[in-house]
Task: inverse folding
């Protein structure tokens, strides 16, 4: 039917084409206690910082990611406004003072701004409160992944989609020479997003709050932790293991338009369920290998190379769908390109900064989440592909395949150019 082909074209034309195909960002921090304070190393998504300047201080926006350090006052002012550390518990907690940073520079390899700074609390630490509102008011969802170390104890927290705080009782942390299990107290903890955190079209999100005070600031006074709303206490981080990372994998695949379009483009030339199984298996095995290799730090590839390479795979497959008269399923090619896409998946998981045996739960959960996300896309659509390929509908199928291929190739070309430039 011509309507089907027209629908594909319209969807493609309306599909958003951001320079970065992932509509959410990830930043991280590592924190380590000393006698009376905590040393932090932030790794903040560079593109998110540029977008922050666009929204709140365009006249001060650095010319490039490499020049982000020139916006030092603005960045430090924003961190002071939105991030706070306190010693103690509840209303009796005392804010810790931020000292002058010892490092503020862009890392090309990580594609992030690194900020090393210490918070002085003025007394031996017993209970620490971390509150992060970084990027919660901005347009794109942003995940903050925090690693907290005290002597030989390590805990991790996800601050995702809203202001959340973590209250850490240092004397209750599990000490040891190895990191604790994900299924025991003291493992990975998840700060749950508030209602509407990842709201998309058609879903109502909480109204954004205007970020005030983002602008030049000369070593502003450290921000005190914002008081909780009168009718609700702030949610505390909860222990999370396999299923938390499974959700992270699903969110990642649905947030990655490039991965979705690659899978859909492969789907259009599959003839039956057997071929579908072969193609999906090839892609799954391939990206699982490189995902694990990157997460385990067996290989390291810069996102500046991975992201353009992913865009190139999309262009290749889409153009092949257009120029070949009878394109067929290609498990070998799918496997090769799956290795490249796995580098992108692994880069998302590598943000956690974990290694060794502690990666078993997150690696397995994240990978299963990616697969579930892919299947949720493929399984409902494949019967439509089979119908379009049915007898007497050859012309319909050809128009859909070629039209979709042209649209996807143009999107891939846009991503390739913008990623090479940025």
Result:
């Amino acid at each position: 039917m011509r309507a089907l082909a027209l629908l594909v074209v319209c969807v493609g034309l309306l599909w958003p084409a951001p320079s970065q195909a992932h509509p959410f960002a990830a930043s991280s921090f590592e924190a380590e206690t000393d006698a009376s304070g905590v040393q932090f190393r932030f790794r903040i998504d560079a593109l998110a910082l540029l977008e922050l300047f666009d929204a709140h201080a365009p006249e001060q926006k650095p010319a490039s990611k490499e020049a982000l350090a020139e916006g030092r006052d603005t960045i430090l002012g924003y961190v002071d406004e939105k991030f706070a550390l306190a010693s103690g518990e509840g209303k009796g907690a005392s804010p810790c003072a931020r000292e002058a940073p010892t490092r503020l520079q862009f890392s090309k390899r990580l594609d992030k701004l690194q900020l090393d700074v210490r918070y002085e609390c003025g007394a031996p630490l017993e209970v620490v409160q971390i509150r992060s509102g970084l990027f919660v008011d901005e347009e794109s969802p942003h995940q903050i992944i925090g690693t907290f170390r005290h002597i030989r104890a390590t805990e991790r927290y996800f601050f995702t989609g809203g202001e959340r705080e973590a209250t850490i009782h240092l004397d209750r942390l599990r000490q040891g020479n190895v990191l604790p299990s994900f299924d025991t107290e003291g493992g990975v903890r998840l700060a749950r997003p508030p209602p509407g955190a990842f709201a998309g079209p058609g879903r109502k999100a909480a109204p954004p709050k205007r970020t005030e005070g983002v602008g030049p600031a000369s070593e502003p006074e450290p921000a005190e932790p914002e008081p909780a709303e009168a009718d609700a206490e702030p949610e505390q981080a909860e222990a999370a293991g396999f299923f938390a990372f499974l959700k992270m994998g699903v969110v990642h695949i649905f947030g990655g338009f490039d991965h979705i379009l690659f899978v859909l483009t492969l789907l259009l030339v599959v003839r039956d369920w057997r071929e579908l199984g072969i193609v999906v298996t090839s892609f799954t095995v391939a990206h699982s290998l490189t995902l694990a290799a990157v997460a385990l730090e067996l290989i390291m590839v810069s996102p500046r190379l991975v992201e353009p390479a992913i865009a190139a795979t999309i262009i290749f497959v889409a153009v092949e769908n257009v120029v070949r008269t009878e394109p067929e399923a290609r498990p070998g090619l799918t496997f090769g390109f799956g290795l490249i896409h796995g580098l992108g998946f692994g880069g998302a998981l590598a943000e956690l900064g974990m290694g060794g045996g502690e990666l078993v739960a997150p690696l397995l959960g994240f990978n299963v989440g990616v697969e579930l996300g892919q299947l949720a896309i493929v399984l409902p659509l494949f019967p439509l592909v089979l119908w379009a390929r049915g007898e007497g509908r050859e012309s319909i199928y050809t128009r859909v395949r070629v039209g979709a291929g042209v649209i996807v190739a143009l999107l891939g070309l846009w991503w390739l150019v913008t990623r090479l430039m940025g």
The mean pLDDT is 76. The radius of gyration is 23 Å. Residues 2-19+256-421 form one domain.
